[in-house]
Amino acid sequence: MIFSRKRAGEARHARDNGVLDAGETPAAPARGPYDVSEAPDAPRLDLGSIQIPAVPDVEVRVQADPQGVIQQVVLVHGQNALQLGVFAAPRSEGIWDEVREEIRTSLLNDGAAAQEVEGERGTELRAQVRTPDGVTDLRFIGIDGPRWMVRGVFQGQAAVDPAAGGPLAACLDGLVVDRGQEAKPVREPLPLRLPREVAEQQAAEQQAAGPQEV
Fold it and tell me: Which of 22, 161, 169, 211 has its Cα between 20 and 30 A from that of 65?
């Protein structure tokens, strides 16, 4: 299932321009991912735990089960892609450092080349993995938030040249995380779902198709 975003949102990120006057509230961070409690208004695609901003020519591709529960979210722009995941984290500290080390160890055990580099958003993990189509470059980033962590995996030229992923990076800049208030085990994926109208349409189409012969 693909959601196309052809027009940019008109809202701009709020920035803190200096000392706050009495009675003013702190400005939202200059860029996201934002917690839902501090996100500026902007048009976004609501997938439950994450809300993806409208960025020109970026397609949102999702894989969902018959109940509308999303298994995978991938943003695509040209030959570049960004796979997104969001996970529960403790209130006291971030988990990206530990998660990154586990990913690095797993890649090395599988015979893939992996190294840590300092990127715009902190320490990243870059790797080369073998696929049926040949060697593929991957760039893993992690962003710790209040009781959540967003993990992104870039593919394509954006995996080796961050500047090539500009529109995909813009999606990260405007991403919103809605963790919810209920307790969750650390690192548990936060639930993602299709927008209600899309899920209803999908259910209606399946009902109209009738039972499938086996």
Answer: 169
Question: Residue 72 sits in which domain range?
Answer: 30-203
Domain-located, residue 180 = yes
pLDDT (tens, 9 = 90+) of the chain, 214 residues, equals 665 444 333 333 333 333 444 445 455 678 899 999 999 999 999 999 999 999 999 999 999 888 888 999 999 999 999 999 999 999 989 999 999 999 999 999 999 989 999 999 999 999 999 888 888 999 999 999 999 999 999 999 999 999 999 999 999 999 999 999 999 999 999 999 988 766 556 556 655 666 655 4
Task: Return the residue matching tokens 């530990």.
Answer: 98
Q: Is residue 118 part of a domain?
A: yes
- Residue 199: inside a domain: yes
pTM value > 0.85: no
Query: What is the domain count for the chain?
Result: 1
SS3 state at 210: coil
Hey, which residues does 60 pair with through a beta bridge? 3, 75
In a domain, 65, yes or no: yes
